[in-house]
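Let's sit down with a protein and look at its sequence and fold side by side. We need material for that, and I hope you will provide a protein of your own picking. Once you have written the record down, we can walk along the chain together.

***
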Amino acid sequence: MSLDAFGEMRDSNDLLDDTPALRERMAEDGYLLLRDYLDLQWVMDARRSVLEVLAEHEMLDEKYPLMEAQAAKSDQETFRSAIGSRAALGKLPAVRKLVHSGRMIDFYTAFLGGEVRSFDFIWMRVMGPGRASAPHYDIVYMGRGTTNLYTSWTPLGDAPLSDASLMVLENSHRLEELKSTYGQMDVDKKGNWKKSGGSFGKDPAAIQQEFGGRWLTTDFRAGDLLVFSMYTMHCSLDNRSDRIRLSSDTRYQLASEPVDERWIGDNPIAHSVRE
């Protein structure tokens, strides 16, 4: 976490009323951090609905209030088994309301300049103690439609650095050689998934040393929204707390552009079919 390898994200709230400036900032930074943008009650309703399911799976410590998301002292195999149905968490009404309506759609309608289509599949992240997500581009998982596609990373509650906050690699969306090699991979093509699971590597420090730039993150708060491009390298810090960090990953594009068929419909095929 030296100053030349690690830094603070800048927020773009001052540009919210200037869509062309937001687009320029996205082109410059590869991400937009919008503080306190989403309806806080909607965020907390989504958080509660997810935690109620986790409590049913005995993933929470009953000695603490539900909304604190205090992790139960279960072994990692039990933890992995309990979150095996994360796709079902993305179908919870409060979650879908948060990410498929209201201010989320308002933002993308303005930012993209037209009618918006969101992926029906919602990626729910249940990040328990000691867990982290590995560095990757999103395009390798969803590159069969338009590349004019964006990710919303939405913390369902506060997510400080200690709780596996998300990081983006500075200027990684400008790494043309990486975009033309790793960025062209399709994880569902034969052989690719077994090689890497889609991640570029497992060591954020080594990746930073290879490509330069800094890993940028912040102490996220409930109501914050992080938007980034398909070619923005990102991962998370390790969860060094005893809480479960909850977040959702959702994708948005113009309705008029081609869509990746794996992630649409009532029951998207997702990664169930390898080619």
